[in-house]
């Protein structure tokens, strides 16, 4: 362990006053509030310990005679961490001009909080966008006092404890001599004024809870998780403070038939085996009206029929995605005697190759993506 005199940079015969001065000088350089370096923090600890020992006559005497400086008893509180210096930061803050003394009284007026509400949407609402009248439970500025917090015709009065400054200053004796500390005035809670006649409607808060209706135009193409920001539509702040923002979080409900892949809509079309073989046109009910789907003769299962521009309107940019109709060929499961004969006769004539292995077919979705790229 370094010598306490060396740590403080004083001679072995330094007076108590010299030791105190040396400590103050070093503490101002090394205090963690001023000097955040790990090195400074370590040095601050040793400087403080050295000062603790050398500023106490009995401990200094003991240290000079080879003791470790702790046996004297007076330094028993020092445990090598900053726990003992809890008040020190406050004193330093004031000492270096960073304290509350330069601040004026607190304002009651504050910005209101942001609010978040979830908007549940159906898939057909997001194709073209939709309009909603949303009910929002929120804080609004009190109409009785207009946010002044006072009964109409009255006004806040200057606090006579802090004389309107909102702070109380006190001189505190410390290692560094007398320093001024300031703290919020307990009488006015730092506001500098007192509301003697609070508004009855809002109990002096300047705002009340209310339900209001917010009209919202939800653009086409939004998706689950997207948040729309409505500046100034959140909670009113206390004492007439400005409103926070309102955020609308989109949640698109599951649809039994259609699912979404970006701006495209996906669905499955069940096609009887015979229609797949012979081909035909079919009318299907999409979310935005009927669509003609053309099945060519020899349509295969998992084939995708793309209907251009019948997907979701693009959130950014123009136009719409596509509707992708995935064909699912349905094989008959029950045949009567005659039907069976016909199919057997067909099979005998058609001479299809025997079932054979081919490359693994990826899932429908991956296949669809591949087709999209290709
Ligand atoms: Zn009011």
Description:
- The strands form six sheets. This protein has a four-stranded mixed β-sheet with strand order 10-11-15-14. Strands 1-9-8 form a three-stranded mixed β-sheet. Strands 2-7 form a two-stranded antiparallel sheet.
- It starts with a helix and ends with a helix.
- It folds into three domains: about 90 residues, Helix Hairpins; about 90 residues, Urease metallochaperone UreE, N-terminal domain (HSP40/DNAj peptide-binding domain), CATH 2.60.260.20; about 120 residues, Urease metallochaperone UreE, N-terminal domain (HSP40/DNAj peptide-binding domain), CATH 2.60.260.
- The protein is about 25% helix and about 25% strand.
- It is an alpha+beta fold and about 375 residues long.
- Bound molecules: zinc ion.
Question: Features of this protein?
Answer:
Helix Hairpins; HSP40/DNAj peptide-binding domain; binds zinc ion; 24% helix; 3-stranded mixed sheet; 374 residues; 27% strand; 3 domains; alpha+beta
**Number of helical segments with 4 or more residues:** 9
| CATH fold naming of the largest domain | HSP40/DNAj peptide-binding domain
What are the secondary-structure elements, in order, as H or E?
A: HHHHHEHEEEEEEEEEEHEEEEHH
Q: How would a textbook summarize the main sheet?
A: 4 strands, mixed
- Please identify, by name, the CATH architecture of the largest domain: Sandwich
Helix content: 10-25%
The proportion of residues in beta strands is 25-35%
Q: Structural class per helix/strand content?
A: alpha+beta
CATH first level of the largest domain: which class? Mainly Beta
The value of Rg in angstroms is 40 Å
How far apart lie the N and C ends? 75 Å
Strand order of the largest sheet: 10-11-15-14
Small-molecule binders: zinc ion
Mean pLDDT over the residues: 84
Please give the domain count: 3
Tally of DSSP β-strands: 15
What are the low-pLDDT stretches, counting only 5+ consecutive residues below 50? 68-102
């Amino acid at each position: 362990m370094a010598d306490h005199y060396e740590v403080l940079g004083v001679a072995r015969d330094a007076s108590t006053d010299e030791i105190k001065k040396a400590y103050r000088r070093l503490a101002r350089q090394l205090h963690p509030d001023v000097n955040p370096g790990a090195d400074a923090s370590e040095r601050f600890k040793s400087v403080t310990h050295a000062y603790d020992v050398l500023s106490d006559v009995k401990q200094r005497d003991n240290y000079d005679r080879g003791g470790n400086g702790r046996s004297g008893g007076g330094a028993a509180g020092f445990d090598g961490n900053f726990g003992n210096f809890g008040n020190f930061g406050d004193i330093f803050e004031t000492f270096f001009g960073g304290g509350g003394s330069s601040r004026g009284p607190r304002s009651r007026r504050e910005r209101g909080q942001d609010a978040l509400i979830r908007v549940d949407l159906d898939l057909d609402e997001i194709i073209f966008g939709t309009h909603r009248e949303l009910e929002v439970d929120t804080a609004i500025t009190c109409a009785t006092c207009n946010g002044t917090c006072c009964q109409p015709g009255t006004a806040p009065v200057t606090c006579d404890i802090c004389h309107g400054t909102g702070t109380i200053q006190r001189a505190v004796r410390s290692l560094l001599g007398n320093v001024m500390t300031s703290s919020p005035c307990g009488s006015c809670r730092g506001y500098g004024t007192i509301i003697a006649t609070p508004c009855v409607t809002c109990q002096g808060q300047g705002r009340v809870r209310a339900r209001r209706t917010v009209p919202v135009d939800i653009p086409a193409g939004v998706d689950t998780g997207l948040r729309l920001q409505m500046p100034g539509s959140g909670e009113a702040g206390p004492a007439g403070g400005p409103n926070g923002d309102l955020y609308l979080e989109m949640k698109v409900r599951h649809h039994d038939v259609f699912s979404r892949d970006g701006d495209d809509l996906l669905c499955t079309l069940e096609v009887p085996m015979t229609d797949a073989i012979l081909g035909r046109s079919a009318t299907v009910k999409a979310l935005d009206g009927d669509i003609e789907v053309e099945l060519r003769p020899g349509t295969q299962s998992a084939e995708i029929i793309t209907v251009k521009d019948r997907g979701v309107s693009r959130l950014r940019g123009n136009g719409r995605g596509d509707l992708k109709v995935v064909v699912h060929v349905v094989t008959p499961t029950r045949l009567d005697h005659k039907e069976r004969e016909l199919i057997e006769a067909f099979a005998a004539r058609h001479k299809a190759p025997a079932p054979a292995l081919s490359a693994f077919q990826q899932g429908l979705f991956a296949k669809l993506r591949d087709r999209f790229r290709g």
